[in-house]
Amino acid sequence: MIYMLFAGALAVCLLCGACALNSSYLRTELADKSEIKGTCSVVLYGANYIDDIATVALIIPEGGQYTFDIFAPDFNYRTIKGVPAADAVKMAEKFVVRHPDFQGSQTSRILDVNGRVIGYEVRPLYRSTTFGTSDVMYVDYFLEDTNKVVVHIHLNIDVERKFMGGSDGHDSNR
After folding, report:
1. What are phi and psi of 21, to 5 degrees?
2. What is the chain's alpha carbon radius of gyration, rounded to the nearest angstrom?
3. What mean pLDDT do residues 18-37 have?
4. From the CB of residue 103, how many other CB atoms can be counted at a distance below 10 Å?
């Protein structure tokens, strides 16, 4: 079982590494929800079952120069366009609070290579006593070509290991 987890983690790293070779990694920084203005598209990722912790909302101002491509099957997310900013924030907040171990949310701005804001991310924070950390996901943004942002969303490997193996991450077969 541990070998399958390792192989899966390695595949994700290689995949993200391959993307990074042909693109620029975009960074995020903490933001206040009040700075989100205008009309937005809202991408709701996850919440596919009652206790799905891999859940995040993206708020993307419309009319920007970038398109966002979620690297996941279409059934893992949905996009709602033409949402006023205040409603987009409410929608994102309502979406990420679904899990019983939800403790709060974190809003970050997504920055292009020049440091300009191109979108926002709202992610849930959970009880660290349940998952070992309050922030259970990696969300990576890669700029491909000149205007396409590819978004990779996956669980923290330690959290995934806990879910998949039901252990503390140590190989019990030694």
Report:
1. -65, -30
2. 17
3. 83
4. 13
